[in-house]
Amino acid sequence: MDQLGINGWQLLIQLIAFLVFIWLLWKFAVGPIVNVLDQRQHRISESMAAAERMQAELRSTQARNEEVLLEARREAQDILSTARTNGEQMLTRAREEANTQAETYLTRAEESLRQESEQARQLLRREVADLAVMAAGRIIRKELDPGAQTQLIEDTLADASRVSTNGTLSGNGVQASANREALVGATRSPAPSENPVSASPTAGTGDVPVDTSVRPEPNTGNQETLEGAMQSPGGPEGSVSAAPAAGTSDVPVDTSERPEPDTNQSSVSYRPSRRS
Asked: CA of 118: how far to CAs of 59, 66, 121, 122, in Å?
């Protein structure tokens, strides 16, 4: 080694110094650098894992959001359907209530109209009775009992209305019978007749034959007064005037009873008894 110019002790010292340098470099330089690199790699790995987890959570959150949106759409559709159904039901109930109230009001109005018509009919009946009594009193030139004559005429009109309701007499027949009975009851006279005359019903007054004993006293003025007083509103077929036959104006009639109309026949006839 001396021939090569190599000093053994110097070589050994240099080798030991190099090994010490390597050890020092590894411990104080390479180790910390490697540790820093390892830590950085670990942080990167953790960051990648966290990013993957976040992406997974994002995907799951998006799926949940879509489900929530679908559920919200379904709920909104259900709410709209329910609101539409409730609105239709409310409208139906409102229509039914309105129809019920309208029917109630119509029923009340019809009942009120019927009552007013009945009151007007009763008032007209009383007025006709009063007019008949007044006309009869003027015709026979003496005082009559207004209460009795009014009651008689009202009973006659009530019987005629009942018979007309049962369908046994026509409107003209009932009105003619009522007017004729009022005429017979209102024109009573105690004097008998020497020349009996049969008063036949006028045309259109129904089959109501009346046999009376009369004493003709011509009086054209009284006949016109009687015809005007005994005019009464008729039914659907018009009005009937219960005037006596031709030649029998101002005719006092004697009768003692008023027969009841027979509701089982199509016509009513009666024969008053003559007072002797």
From this structure: 87, 77, 5, 6
Question: How many domains does the structure of the chain reveal?
Answer: 1
What is the per-residue pLDDT across 171-194, written as a single tens digit (0 to 9) for each? 444 454 545 555 545 444 443 333
Position 17 in a domain:
yes
Phi-psi region of 118 (alpha: psi -120 to 50; beta: other; left: phi over 0): alpha
Q: Please list, in sequence order, all residues whose beta carbon lies within 8 angstroms of the beta carbon of residue 132, skipping any fewer than 6 positions away.
A: 149, 153, 182, 183, 186, 229, 230
Reported residue count of the chain is 276
Mean predicted lDDT score pLDDT of the chain: 67
* Spatial distance between the Cα atoms of 124 and 239, rounded to a whole number of angstroms: 14
18 within domain boundaries: yes
Calpha distance 105→112 (Å, rounded): 10
In a domain, 116, yes or no: yes
**20 falls within a domain:** yes
Please tell me whether the overall predicted TM-score, pTM, comes out greater than 0.90 for this model: no
Classify the C-alpha dihedral 183-185-186-192 as positive or negative: positive
